[in-house]
Specification:
Layout: E1 4-9, H1 16-25, E2 30-34, H2 40-53, E3 58-61, E4 67-69, H3 73-76, E5 85-90, H4 99-106, E6 116-125, H5 126-139, H6 157-167, E7 174-176, E8 183-185, E9 194-197, E10 200-203, E11 212-214
Length: 228
């Protein structure tokens, strides 16, 4: 079955219209899910419900407001996304400082400078995502109803997914895309890491062409050169 790109939002904005145009042009099925009140907790719960509805599809959950799709449909059909749950990566441990926990989780493995979890995007088989989100919500749910990305209590999706990464059963295969094949985040970027080649972002460190582009920080190149 075709992969499905899912995005949960309360009102259209940011780069959503452009991302939708890119997905449609590439022939990638997409599922917009509009909710009346956006909070990080609501987003996780709705994502779980969607995953339960599509147990046999490979789902890509993205942030609609600051994400671009620069890839091709065949890249989403890659069997590597079928097993386990893959999270995008970034260079900074956010929202709270948990570097020591990451060090223990990596256990001296060789990884790139993009070694921390970013939940945009997250992908995997719908049945496994639903199972993992339900288990995580039972173990360490988000408190309150915040939509603040810097909530001082850490009740944001990044905290939830980081706990899920560290605590979920190993056999579920949760992993971080440290090679930036699935996605490229901009936060903490430095000159010389990224370039534009043929209308796509290329990570010069990992020698990859990320499928999704997460504009969560300052870009150190002319983004207008992208073929969007």
């Amino acid at each position: 079955m075709d992969p499905l790109v899912v995005y949960v939002f309360d009102k259209p904005g940011g780069h959503q219209a452009l991302m939708e145009q890119q997905l449609d042009a590439a022939g990638v099925p997409r599922l917009p899910v509009e909710i009346p009140a956006f909070t990080w907790g609501n987003r996780i719960l709705v994502s779980m419900q969607v995953a339960e509805q599509y147990p046999d599809r490979v789902l890509f959950f993205v942030d609609s407001w600051d994400t671009l799709f620069l890839g091709h449909k065949w890249e989403l059909d890659n069997p590597c996304w079928h097993d386990g749950i893959t999270f995008a990566s970034e260079k900074k441990c956010w929202p709270d400082s948990r570097e020591d926990e990451y060090d223990r989780w990596w256990d001296n493995k060789l990884v790139t400078r993009w070694r921390f979890l970013n939940s945009n995007p997250m992908c995997g088989q719908g049945a496994l995502i639903a199972k993992a989100l339900r288990w995580g919500w039972e173990q360490f749910p988000l408190a309150g109803h915040t939509n603040d990305t810097c909530d001082p209590e850490g009740n944001v999706c990044e905290r939830f997914y980081t706990d899920l990464l560290f605590r979920a059963p190993k056999e579920w295969g949760l992993r971080i895309d440290t090679q930036c094949v699935l996605a490229q985040t901009v936060a903490e970027g430095t000159v010389g890491e990224l370039a534009i080649r043929g209308g796509r972002i290329k990570n010069l460190i990992t020698d990859t062409y990320p499928i999704f582009f997460h504009l969560n920080g300052k870009a150190y190149f002319n983004v207008s050169l992208l073929h969007v």
